[in-house]
Design goal:
Blueprint lengths: L9 H20 L28 H4 L7 E2 L5 E2 L5 H14 L3 H26 L6 H12 L4 H4 L5 H23 L2 H17 L6 H12 L4 H20 L25 H20 L21 H20 L5 H14 L21 H16 L13 H23 L5 H8 L7 H18 L5 H20 L4 H14 L3 H14 L4 H13 L3 H14 L4 H13 L3 H14 L4 H13 L3 H14 L4 H13 L3 H10 L2
Antiparallel strand pairs: 1-2
Length: 650
């Protein structure tokens, strides 16, 4: 009989450390759970038309683009392919419906899981190092404040999933490298595929995998090539197979997002890229201020004569030289530097400009390089054993002091920053003082104010009026930074139209938007609507007709056209416009309601009531219509129908 192995499992050996990491994750990010939806959550949740369908949306999610949004200027956002992250929100919605607090809780849980997986990976990778070395690395990684944009923002769950699956994949590839089991290789490929389908930024791990194996294992060229080749196969499959069934991407290039998108001089991409790298290096050591958006003109396009570019070139060449010098020794500092370079490389703007130019979340994985370097230095300062896993830990008092000097400020900044993400308005309001030169930052703050004031119709109250003044100030500031910002011109016009009722000024702003962008369909709509209100029907009709050239099946505009025809005593034309609505939307309660009104006012009561009943059948929640039908059938002595419409309102 085989003797039972009483050796403790990996789980039992590490469960205390895992428990500490889970607790630490919730200490750091537990205060995000009460937060609401915020910036860009519409891409994945907060009423997203796909994920709101729950389980039934899954086939659609895996066969459509990540973003599927129509802009006011008529352009469309149809880009990316991140089905895994959207699938998680669809599953959430199936069980919890609209539940931002549940989503935030899951984000924190995922972060804790990332930390556990990272610890397991580092313990396996650094098996010759002291057992506390990987744990302290993960603690610093966990506390770093740049992670707030990922954990506190639901839209950025994709970054969590990339890290989770990429670290799991790396662990599986490491197992294959050590044990040469085909199952581990296949597991690594499958997990890496999940990482890539969470976000294409997982591609950087193509370089991370072989580099890590080189540093922490004896070089076996054959197995190294198998791992690298397997990862490459996954990337090729994930990158090109979806193109066979996905619609073509649509992503307008906007100057306010990154001026390098319009810059043909590639040397300026490289020089500005070095300025970006200096920005990230500073963020690694001191992350403040953390901002929800950067864009134009927070990081100006500069040449190699710029002082910050020169400084950045010197620092990064020195780091690269030091990493290469230590490379033959497989020194852990060399690995830390190379890991940082690899993971931040796709965000440097040198090869391909990124939207927003820079972002705190882009440092999510790269921070691990800093954590490794710091803990290595702490071990040296404390004279603690580095390469002996079983050695008694020495220098513990020094190590505790050094760790606390990092963990306390990082944790305090993280916990404080989380509260800014409570709502989109609070987030933009918290950061706007540091966004004086960001065109889109000012625009997004003004838009948040507008959604709050117009949504609550509170502009007549003193507090609401203050917000209106702030709104105008920041829309105008966005235009000062970038005079061609047609979205901001259009938004200014809407404030003067809806809130201030100063139509001449509003129209001037709308026309300025159209001068910059003649395809700005929302401006055509706004001018048409404003003239509809003022009963200048000829002018309103002209602008609505231009709008319909872009959106020929816009129900509300057809309704406006029908109302103008009826007010001009053209009943036939008024009915015709509503019949057009029914051709592209047979279930339009608005069309039947309009026709009922026109027929009633023309004295055709019976057909009018028939149309009203069709409208009520499609939309039984129109309380005023139900009341009118109740009164009509009561007068007619039809108790059954009268009671039916009475009950609809109960």
């Amino acid at each position: 009989m085989k003797k039972k192995d009483n050796k403790p499992s990996v789980w039992s050996q590490n469960k205390v450390l895992y428990g500490i990491l889970v607790l630490f994750a919730f200490v750091l990010y537990g205060n995000t759970i009460p937060n609401e939806y915020a910036l860009d959550d519409i891409y994945v949740t907060n009423g997203n038309p796909q994920t709101s369908k729950g389980f039934s949306a899954l086939p659609e999610i895996f066969t459509s683009r990540y973003a599927n949004v129509n802009n006011d200027d008529g352009s469309a956002l149809r880009f990316g392919y991140r089905p895994i992250v959207k699938a998680t929100f669809a599953i959430e919605h199936q069980f919890f419906k609209r539940a931002p607090h549940v989503s935030h809780f899951i984000n924190v849980l995922l972060y804790a899981l990332v930390l556990i997986v990272l610890l397991r990976l580092l313990r396996s990778l650094m098996r010759d190092y002291h057992y506390l070395f990987p744990f302290l690395i993960v603690l610093i990684f966990a506390a770093h404040p740049v992670h707030t944009e990922v954990v506190a923002s639901l839209k950025n769950r994709d970054e969590l999933l990339v890290s989770l699956f990429a670290f799991l994949s790396m662990h599986a590839f490491l197992k294959y490298f050590d044990e040469r089991k085909t199952l581990q290789l296949l597991a690594g490929m499958g997990l890496f595929l999940l990482a890539y389908l969470s976000k294409a930024s997982a591609m950087v791990f193509l370089a991370v995998f072989p580099v890590a194996l080189y540093f922490f294992r004896e070089v076996n060229v054959k197995k190294l090539l198998v791992v690298a080749g397997s990862a490459l196969v996954v990337v090729l499959i994930a990158r090109y197979v979806p193109r066979l069934f996905l619609p073509s991407p649509e992503r307008p290039i906007l100057f306010v997002e990154n001026p390098l998108l319009f810059e043909d001089n590639k040397l300026l991409h490289v020089s500005t890229g070095f300025k970006v790298l200096l920005f990230y290096l500073k963020k690694m050591f001191w992350p403040l201020p953390m901002l929800f958006y950067y864009g134009y003109n927070m990081i100006p396009v500069v040449g190699f004569g710029n002082a910050e570019v020169i400084l950045s070139v010197i620092i990064h060449l020195a780091l690269a030289g030091y990493a290469i010098y230590l490379l033959p020794k497989k020194h852990v500092l060399s690995f830390a530097i190379l890991f940082y370079f690899i993971t931040i490389s796709i965000y440097a703007n040198m090869v391909k400009p990124v939207m927003g130019i820079v972002a705190d979340r882009f440092l999510f994985s790269a921070v691990l390089g800093l954590a490794i370097a710091l803990v290595y230095l702490f071990f040296r300062i404390a004279k603690a054993p580095l390469k002996n896993p079983k050695a008694i830990f020495t220098g513990s008092n020094t190590m505790v002091v050094l760790m606390l000097l990092v963990l306390i400020p990082f944790s305090a900044i993280t916990i404080d920053r989380n509260t800014d993400w409570e709502t989109q308005l609070k987030l933009t309001e918290s950061d706007i003082g540091q966004l004086e030169n960001s065109a889109k930052g000012n625009y997004l703050y003004a838009l948040s104010l507008k959604n709050d004031v117009v949504g609550k119709q509170s502009w007549k109250k003193p507090e609401g009026q203050q917000k209106v003044n702030l709104m105008l100030k920041h829309y105008k500031r966005a235009i000062e930074i970038y005079p061609e910002y047609y979205d901001a011109w259009n938004q200014l016009g809407e404030i003067y139209m809806v809130v201030k009722r100063e139509y001449e000024i509003a129209e001037r702003f709308f026309k300025k938007a159209l001068e910059i962008n003649p395809d700005m369909r929302k401006a055509y709509y706004n001018i048409g609507y404003m003239n509809f209100i003022e009963k200048d029907y000829d002018k309103a009709r002209a602008y609505f007709e231009k709008f319909l050239q872009y959106e020929p099946e816009h129900e509300q505009v057809h309704s406006f056209m029908s109302k103008m025809a009826f007010r001009e005593n053209n009943l036939e034309k008024a009915l015709e416009w509503n019949e057009k609505i029914l051709k592209f939307n047979p279930e339009s309660a608005l069309a039947y309601f309009n026709m009922g009104n026109y027929l009633l006012q023309s004295g055709d009561t019976i057909p009018a009531v028939e149309n009203f009943e069709k409208a009520a059948e499609i939309n039984p929640n129109n309380t005023q219509l139900n009341k009118n039908l109740y009164r009509y059938f009561t007068d007619q002595g039809n108790e059954r129908k009268a009671n039916y419409y009475l009950n609809l309102n109960n």
